[in-house]
């Protein structure tokens, strides 16, 4: 795991992620940055810090999952960090039932993984009659299995975790929902605004007072100017019930006339608007829109 002393590796080759080697965030790093070395970090905070202090050039951070919803920790960290979103990546979550080499299904009685992964594979686990036990993360469960070498135990994790820890995939694609996909954002110390002539996502934070119609008035400009808001998350500020902070994604570029008008109206009704990034839309997002006929 990363520490502040690990600075010998050139930061231009490193991308930080939270979790053990073999985690789905690690897999996302390999998919999006195949030529970069990944830097595992014990916590999300440590992954953010690795970029802020120059250990890594980028961080690959999960923001939401199509089954489990938002990753709450990230929305709490974003306002307190000085990083910029420079890209997005959608990673299909393909769960594998990993076992010690030579293990058969009838040998198993226990499966370990992160609680969300266990929940996402609940149907298959019940079908196989296995006891499910939550562990800190998916790759960590695979690592544990490789260490304790229990032939009665399996781990649910990525194919990459199986590769790293010398495990076999007894079953693959065991997630109950075929659409199980995690959206990641790529963070950098340096701001890099995408050009306005390509499909973009713009992410920003803003605050409103907890008074009637505050959010309705603040967001009215996006509706009247035809701006698609794809994400809106709210949370209280420092435990206060007098104001709320919002995290929002829109499709568009700040230089677009319609986006400019919407942001001007937002500014009139809110406080402390902070642009987190304007970055290219992922191919996955564009393809999904085409499938939906939009």
What does this structure look like?
The structure is a single chain. The protein is of the alpha/beta class and 294 residues long. The protein is 30% helix and 33% strand. It is built from 10 helices and 15 strands. Strands 1, 2, 3, 4, 5 and 11 form a 6-stranded mixed sheet that branches. A 5-stranded mixed sheet has the order 8-7-9-6-10. Strands 13-14-12-15 form a 4-stranded antiparallel sheet, with helices on one face. Helix 1 links the parallel strand 1 and strand 2. The protein is elongated, with a radius of gyration of 21 Å. The chain starts with 13 loop residues before the first strand and ends with a helix. Mean pLDDT is 91; it is low at 2-10.
Query: Per the principal axes of the C-alpha atoms, what is the gross shape?
Result: elongated
Helix content: 25-40%
Low-confidence stretches: 2-10
Q: What is the H level of CATH, i.e. the homologous superfamily of the largest domain?
A: ACT domain
For the largest beta-sheet, the strand count, sense and barrel status come to: 6 strands, mixed
Number of strands: 15
Sketch the topology as an H/E string, one letter per element: EHEHEEHEEEHHEHEHEEEHEEHEH
In CATH, what is the class of the largest domain?
A: Alpha Beta
Instruction: Just name the CATH architecture of the largest domain.
Output: 2-Layer Sandwich
Mean of residue pLDDT? 91
Q: What structural category arises from helix and sheet content?
A: alpha/beta
Query: With helices defined by DSSP (H or I, 4 residues minimum), what is the helix count?
Result: 10
Q: Which fold name corresponds to the CATH topology of the largest domain?
A: Alpha-Beta Plaits
Strand content: 25-35%
How many individual domains?
A: 3
Please give the radius of gyration in angstroms. Answer: 21 Å
């Amino acid at each position: 795991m990363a520490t502040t002393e690990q600075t010998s590796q050139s930061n231009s080759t490193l991308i930080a992620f939270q979790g053990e080697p073999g985690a789905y965030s690690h897999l996302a790093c390999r998919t999006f940055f195949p030529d970069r070395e990944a830097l595992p970090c014990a916590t999300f905070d440590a992954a953010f810090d690795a970029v802020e202090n120059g250990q890594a050039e980028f961080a690959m951070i999960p923001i939401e999952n199509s089954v489990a919803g938002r990753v709450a920790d990230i929305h709490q960290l974003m306002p307190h960090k000085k990083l910029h979103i420079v890209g997005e990546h959608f990673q299909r979550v393909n769960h594998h039932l990993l076992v010690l080499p030579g293990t058969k299904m009838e040998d198993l009685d226990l499966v370990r993984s992160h609680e969300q992964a266990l929940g996402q594979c609940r149907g298959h686990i019940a079908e196989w009659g296995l006891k499910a036990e939550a562990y800190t993360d998916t790759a960590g469960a695979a690592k544990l299995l490789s260490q304790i070498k229990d032939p009665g135990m399996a781990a649910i994790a990525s194919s990459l975790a199986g590769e790293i820890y010398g495990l076999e995939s007894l079953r693959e694609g065991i997630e109950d929902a075929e659409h199980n996909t995690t959206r990641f954002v790529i963070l950098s110390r340096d701001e890099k605004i995408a050009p306005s002539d390509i499909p973009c996502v713009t992410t920003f934070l803003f605050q409103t007072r907890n008074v009637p119609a505050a959010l309705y008035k603040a967001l009215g400009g996006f509706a009247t100017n035809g701006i698609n808001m794809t994400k809106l998350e709210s949370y209280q500020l420092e435990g206060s019930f007098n104001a709320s902070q919002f995290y929002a994604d829109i499709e568009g570029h700040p230089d677009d006339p319609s986006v400019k008008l919407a942001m001007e109206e937002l500014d009139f009704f809110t406080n402390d608007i902070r642009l987190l990034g304007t970055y290219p839309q992922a191919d996955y997002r564009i393809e999904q829109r085409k499938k939906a006929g939009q």
